[in-house]
Every structure is written in C-alpha cells, then in structure tokens.
Amino acid sequence: MFENELGENCEFGCYHPAVTACYYILVIGITMFSMSPFFLCATFFFAWLYAVLMRGRKVIKKNLIMLLTIVVLMTAINTFFTHNGETVLFYINRNRITLEAFVYGLSASVMLISVMIWFESFQALMSSDKLIFLFGKFIPVIGLVISMIFRFVPLLKNRYEEISMGQKCMGRGGQKGLTARVRQLAKEVSILIAWSLEASIESADSMSARGYGLRGRSSFHLFKMTGRDIRMLVYMVAAGGVVIAGGALGETTMAFYPKLIWKIPHPAVFTAFLLLLILPLIIDLAGEYKWKKSISKM
Predict the structure, then answer these.
(1) Helix axes 17-32, 128-135, angle to 10 degrees
(2) pTM of the prediction?
(3) For residues 103 and 121, what is the distance between their CA atoms, to the nearest angstrom?
(4) Residue 91 φ/ψ, nearest 5 degrees
(5) Which of 115, 151, 233, 242 could form a disulfide bond with 272, CB atoms 3.0-4.6 angstroms apart?
(6) Whether 182 and 98 share a structural domain
(7) Do 141 and 129 reside in the same domain of the chain?
(8) What pLDDT digit, counting tens, does each position of 169-199 carry?
C-alpha cells in the first residue's frame, strides 16, 4: 500500500482548485491554532499518511529527519530556557526544569511539523496554473509570488543537480581536500545564482510582454465549478465550521502553565475534525480502487 506516488494525478487533485485551497486553508489554519494533544496527534498522523500517499515511501526518511531535528531543538530550547510550571523535574544551576515547559515545547514542535507536512501535499496538488487561476485575476502579483515560492525550492534543487553533473563531466568533481571542495561548491552556487537571476529576468520580460496583471486581460483555463465541487465545499465548510466554533470555545487547546490541565475535547468537535482530515484519503483511495477495477475489466 502507498508504494506509488500520486501527486496531481490523484482524485482529490481533480477537484476545482478552490476546493483544494479551501481544504488546506481549513486544515492548516486549525492546526496552527490547536495545542490540544488530541488534535495535534490527529493532524500529525493524517498529514504523514497523506504525504506518503502523495509522494511515496521515500518521503518517510526525509520527514523523519526533519521531525527529529525540529522536535529535539524546539523541545530542548523551551525546556531549558522556560522555567514556568509547577512540576519540577530537576535543577540546573538553580534553574527549574519543569514538565510543563517540556510538554509545551513538544506540542509546539508537533504542531509546526504537521503544518510543514501538510504544505508538502499542498505543493504536490496545487500546481502553478492552479495558483495563478485562483489569485491571478484579483491579486496577480501575490498569485505569481505564491506560485513561484512553491516552485522555487524544487527548481533550484534540479538546477543544482544539473550544474553538479556538468561539472563532474568536465572533470571538476570529486576534489580532494576541504579547500578544493569549498571552492568547487562556491563555483557551483555562483553558477546557480547567475542562472536563476537570468531566468527570472527572462520570465519577467516574457510575462510583461504578454500583459500579465493588466486590467481586462483574459486567460485560458480548464477549471469549471461543478455540482460535485459545490457539494464538497459545503461538506468542508460545515465540518470546518464546527471545529472553528469549538476552537473559539477553547476545545482545541489546553492549559500548560502554571499546571498541565488535560482537557478532553467535545466529541462533536473532534469527530468533525477527523472527518475533515480523512476526506482526501477516502477520495483518493476510492478513486484508485475504481481505476484498478476498471483496468482489471479491460
């Protein structure tokens, strides 16, 4: 299970871009303002699960390294530099190390990691044309910037790999000694920066020549809001509205200082959040099952 990455080819990615954007705005927004361990564990689990479905098993190793790094750093920093809390674990130079500071740092790190992993699947689903379609007509500059941000890191990575491979083919790779390696790295980074700046100028001139951002400019797209999209929007807004209302009443958080107060969220609010989180998984797995079933009948 989850051996092949789906990316934009998944069933959930076939919905209208507004549906996908609405889903991630709700999920990421709720995650960012939730500190309850119940909500954090749920969003963390489904973020990982959907990222593996979208990107394949290779994402596990990368996300695991990121997870351990962020958890260790944030938990350690908050534990050793925040001395609030009643439950003292031990003392370091008369500074209290408390359980409350440790749990808060751990919760904050899980929340941050969950948001980052959700953005991974968002990047796989929301291509540049979808982002420009959503924002290009109303806020063209912001729409272009957002699409470039999500494209920037993988683009630089691919360009750097091309530069490095070219340098190796020219016999300039695999130098011995730290100084030679640093010089070669600086040369490759310099080429990468020059290439990126030149490509940015060409893209800006090309878009300016085509009239991007001018009033009245039309654009071609294949996106059309259907009844299926409207029903999905109503479902997401209803589930998200329940969770947001619960969050306004304090159901998505808990008290850390001066004493940990474990609060069990209202079943209706937590169930609505679970139904929102599991939505793309059900859609993609059902779509993949139908596709395999149709292939087997051929």
Answers:
(1) 90
(2) 0.71
(3) 28
(4) -115, 145
(5) 242
(6) no
(7) no
(8) 877 766 677 777 788 778 888 888 887 777 7
CA–CA distance, 9 with 232 (Å, rounded to integer): 18
Q: For 134-169, how does the pLDDT look when each residue is reduced to its tens digit (9 = 90+)?
A: 766 665 556 566 666 666 667 777 788 888 888 778
State how far the Cα of 95 lies from the Cα of 208, in Å rounded to an integer.
59
Residues 43 and 31 sit within 8 Å (Cβ to Cβ): yes
Distance from the first to the final alpha carbon of the chain: 23
- Same domain, yes or no, for 128 and 146? no
The token pair at 85 is 């809390």
Task: Identify the domain boundary among 171, 187, 212.
Answer: 212
Instruction: Extract the tokens encoding 168.
Output: 């190796």
In the numeric block, the tokens 């990455």 are attached to 5
Q: What is the average pLDDT across 8-37? A: 84
Cβ(16)–Cβ(227) below 8 Å: no
